[in-house]
Predict the structure.
Amino acid sequence: MRHTFTSSMLFLFVCCLVNAQSPTFDQLAPTPPMGWNSWNKFGCKVSETLIKEMADAMVATGMKEAGYEYIVIDDCWQVSRDSVGNIVPDSAHFPNGMKALADYIHSKGLKFGVYSCAGSRTCQGRPGSRGYQFQDARQYAEWGVDYLKYDWCSNEGQNARAAYQTMSDALKACGRPIVLSICEWGENEPWKWGKGIGHLWRITPDIRDCFDCTFNWGGVGVLQILDKAVEVADAAGPGHWNDLEMLEIGNGNQTETEYRSHMAIWCMMAAPLMAGNDLRTMSTADRDILCNPEALAINQDSLGHSGFKYMTLNNVDILVRALSNGDVAFLFLNRANEPTALDYDWNANTVYHHTLEKGRFYVAKEPRILVDVWGKQKNGTTKKPIKTVLEPHEGLFFRVKKNDKPAL
Ligand code: GLA
């Protein structure tokens, strides 16, 4: 009896230990994942040296300290399969192989991600995972992969939900916790079925480094992504996120004002934050946008509600996001290409306390303190209306504090 009791306790203890060390699949993304991905800036020009330098830069620039953790190699690291079907990395560009690279990234306290595709070929014509899902997942686990971005080119008419389910099952069986980033561009409404299969899902075609643009072949800008995110906002929650795409901040084609709004939108909509610029050479201004602690606290808020569109005044979208401690985030975003006047009376319109029930707000009677996320305005309160002119694509980004009342 005693023996059985002791062995049961021992078993429980070991289970707890294992549990404490490895989160289950469902526990992998309680807040939106943060990291860096090679695609937006480097395309197919990826190598071991580049990825290691990016890991070094993530630490040196303070991004790691701010919360960024995944270093993800996108397409083009893979070249073929060997005689038994194992995926073969490009040895010219990754001479020491993937395990050595994963070890290096882990030695910096960061996590390692790779890319593959549910189709037979990746979008750049490299071998995809169709037919090899379990073999690939086991290989990723052996290398020490922590994150898989899984694309949808050459899908040969498969059912998307089933295809992503197969890779999800393979990852769940591979013996290592691996985040699954579903990348089928929103074509099959993954916000309706992605929860439990993956941790994040793309909702649009690929982002381009522009604020307001649509390309014939499918590339879209920041505003176009925002409009889709507003439509599907309710699907986001702890462990399962709408992926608004990798960031373009720092890639040079938008103004600093636009990059700030880009960041603010991703934070308001509880989107994963995967930087897509060259971390080695980024300007202080771009770094400060990516690492702004107030913005990141809103993005990573534990309640995990996405913001929603509260109203549009002239061309100014007003987005509101309920936060876990009863604070509320506001973004006043000028969609227009020209300066736009904003006259917003908090007391006439606003809703700035919330109940924990999603989407239910009530009006606070007394004024509250405003924290200006970008730090321009000090000591703001909701006592006075906002009367200002917003620059083209400018966003005023605030946290309204539930418990901080201004002095009378
Ligand atoms: C697709 C994806 C992109 C990128 C490329 C790589 O277009 O949507 O994010 O991964 O493939 O080829």
About this structure: The longest helix spans residues 2-21. Confidence is low (pLDDT under 50) at residues 1-5, 11-19.
